[in-house]
Amino acid sequence: MKQNPGDDGISIISIFTTLKRILLSIALVVFGLFTYKVFITRLLHGTRLDQIFAFLVIWFVAAYILIPHVHRFLTKLYIPDYFIGRIRTIDGLLSDPVNLVFIGNEDELHTAMQKAGWVLADKITFKSAFKVGMSVILRHCYDKAPVSSGYLFNKAQNFTYQHPIDGKPFARHHVRFFKAPEGWFMPGGHKVDWLAAGTFDRSIGFSYFTLQFTHRIASDTDIERDHIVDTLKQSGSIKKLNIIKNYFSAYHHHNGGGDRITTDGDLPIIELKH
């Protein structure tokens, strides 16, 4: 029987993946037993201070380690790994809709957004995280506050622009930009350079799916899409605007944080001025 040249490589990868899953399962069981022994007994039978400490530890472990790992495993099984008009969270959950696309190079895109009054968000670093914490405590706006990573084509956004709201430190307009893969065409044969997902952060809260702290978004994502287009129009940055009606089926669903989202499915194709 003939053997395909790549069979050995595939077998090695499969064995490695299986071992990795077995080791991870063992680690989770051991960690679960340790958590029960050390923290859950304190939560049930300890002093009030012990209970608060144990609760915070259990919440942190569940929200930032256990639940995300479960989502990453399960979403690989049931969410398709190709373009469906939605970005994904780092844990693989479906997130915001792709509701804008652009034709133009990166310099033209930066020029257009900044001319329209948008601010380039900082990258997520220890320094920017500290600034976010201070802005929450002091309740003042951090105009360049970083935005969590969204994923499209298995890559995080190239950059994010935002438009802060005066007097509302937890509210902001924001839009993530993703470079289209080389030679890639959108369904229908449209050739674009950038895809974008714009939503409005209205407040902060807990994710319904992971229990992590996160921004809560306004449900009508079409309002934010139209706001972005309007700011670019007013700044004179658009060479040509083509709105494809019902490009995606209109739908209502939830994003990666559990917030309700709705869209009419229209898709603006924006060609930027040189």
Q: Care to describe what's here?
A:
The protein has 274 residues and is an alpha+beta fold. It has 2 domains: 7-78; 86-272, no CATH class. The chain has 5 helices and 14 strands. The protein has helices at residues 7-45, 48-78, 106-115, 126-138, 221-234; strands at residues 86-88, 94-97, 100-103, 119-120, 151-152, 155-156, 159-165, 168-179, 194-206, 213-217, 238-244, 251-254, 260-263, 267-272. Strands 3, 4, 7, 8, 9, 10, 11 and 14 form an 8-stranded mixed sheet that branches. The protein has a two-stranded antiparallel ribbon with strand order 1-2. It has a two-stranded antiparallel sheet with strand order 5-6. A hairpin with a 2-residue loop joins strand 7 and strand 8 (168-179). Helix 1 packs antiparallel against helix 2 (48-78). The longest helix is centred in the first third of the chain and has 39 residues, at 7-45. It is globular, with a radius of gyration of 22 Å. 26% of the residues are buried. The mean pLDDT is 86.
